[in-house]
Design brief:
Jelly Rolls, 3 helices, mainly beta
């Protein structure tokens, strides 16, 4: 008896589960408005035209896709970029130095000094070699730069000298040879020089602060609506400035000119050079000192479209105000006296 009762209870439970699932599926597949009425809930302002019985037996008066709806209502967007300084600094720098060197020539021996130094050709100017002649100063001192002779002269002991190294002879890696002239037929003589405080110097431009990279971002909506853009900034510098500023956006050169100091500079930009997402803007100067402030990248957006549709409606869609045949429960645009909102949608 216990076995039969257990089987009966198990079968009832399975049947109950099946009925519950079927009821849930039925509710889910009901139209939203009917489902809301069945469950006693509100669907807000939802209206399904297919469920509205319009006069004339029609169920749909007008259908049109309105396209993409965006929340951007402004005509322009501004992106503020922090202020920064770009500058170069030129100063006298020692490129290499030697405390003392000795060169000599005789009929039986010769000693030449090889000195080397490196330059950045575009950044190094006014290069020269300087030295002081020691006690030994016999013959003519010879100085060669990269194979070109710059000096061939008799020098007095104790004198100091500067030998300019021409820019057009300089390379990235340079060699200076220092020697002394031959003794000729006087095989018993020795020509030699002792040089002290030998130094190669030049004016070297420091460009470590000559550029500044900044970024700004455009989201998808702003980018899609951008028609063009405008870059604005102030350059704080000396009023007699003749130095240039170069600006790149995403690798495109948009500005290369002598900066207008204390004047608002405006640059029109084409949308083609701007990217969706991250954008890179670089300011560069080859010479000078600039404080760049009030930097704004403004995007000018396209005018939004406000579509207007015109369509004809049959007279059957309209209700004659003289028609007094008001029926509670009919969707006819009239709310009969004494009719409740639950009974007639026109009373809502």
């Amino acid at each position: 008896m216990r076995t039969r009762k257990g089987q009966s209870s198990s079968g009832s439970a399975i049947l109950l589960i099946i009925l519950t699932v079927l009821i849930i599926l039925y509710i889910l597949f009901l139209p939203p408005q009917d489902r809301a009425e069945l469950l006693g809930t509100s669907t807000g302002t939802y209206t399904d035209l297919d469920d509205v019985n319009l006069p004339g037996g029609q169920y749909e008066a007008f259908t049109q896709s309105v396209g993409r709806i965006e929340h951007i209502s402004d005509k322009e967007q501004e992106h503020t970029i922090p202020s920064f300084r770009i500058s170069t600094k030129t100063s006298g720098t020692s490129l290499n130095s030697w405390d003392s060197i000795y060169v000599k020539t005789s009929s039986f021996d010769e000693h030449i000094e090889d000195l080397s130094f490196k330059t950045e050709e575009e950044l190094t100017k006014n290069v020269k070699i300087s030295f002081t002649v020691g006690d030994q100063a016999n013959g003519k001192l010879i100085v060669l730069l990269n194979g070109y002779r710059l000096l061939y002269d008799d020098l007095e002991p104790g004198t100091s000298h500067f030998v300019p190294l021409p820019d057009d002879l300089l390379e990235r890696y340079n060699n200076i040879k220092i020697g002394v002239s031959s003794t000729g037929w006087a095989f018993w003589r020795v020509n030699d020089y002792q040089l002290r405080n030998v130094m190669v110097t030049g004016d070297v431009k420091d460009v470590s602060g000559a550029r500044s990279k900044q970024v700004f971002f455009l989201d998808n909506e702003e980018y899609q609506h951008t028609n063009r853009a405008l870059l604005k900034f102030y350059a704080d510098c000396e009023l007699d400035n003749e130095d240039r500023i170069t600006i790149h956006i995403n690798g495109n050169n948009i500005y290369d000119a002598v900066a207008d100091c204390a004047v608002l500079t405006k640059i029109e930009l084409d949308k083609q050079i701007i990217n969706e997402g991250e954008n890179e803007i670089i300011f560069i100067t080859g010479r000078g000192d600039f404080l760049v402030t009030n930097i704004i990248l403004k995007t000018i957006l396209e005018e939004p479209t406000y579509p207007i549709w015109y369509y004809n409606l049959d007279k059957d869609y309209f209700i004659d105000k003289t028609d007094t045949n008001e029926i509670c429960g009919e969707v006819d645009g009239q709310c009969p006296t004494g009719c409740e909102p639950d009974d007639d949608k026109d009373c809502c």
